[in-house]
Amino acid sequence: MQIWSVKGIRKKIPKGPKVISMAEFADCENWKEVDADIKFEELGYKKEVFGVGVKYHKEDMGIEFWFDDKTITKNQEVELYSFITMAELKAINKKCQELGWE
Q1: Position 94 confidence tier, pLDDT thresholds 50, 70, 90
Q2: How far apart are CA 31 and CA 48, in angstroms?
């Protein structure tokens, strides 16, 4: 049995190479202890800092944190509605905690 670890998170995986899914990673009880940048990276987002905030983006969508009025937006170019997954919500909550927006 191998031990898979990211920044102190340890998870046992079966013998042999295995890529674990995001769902398996999100279910790890210590995932909440990982910093927001790593959470967004694991979800496939890239970080971009701009004058009044920070944006995490991938493909045709982005999640933006606006520092001046402490707001968060998620936009998607193709769809009229943009849904937030539970894994994204966990990452958003962690980023808000790191920014002191609690």
Answers
A1: very high
A2: 23
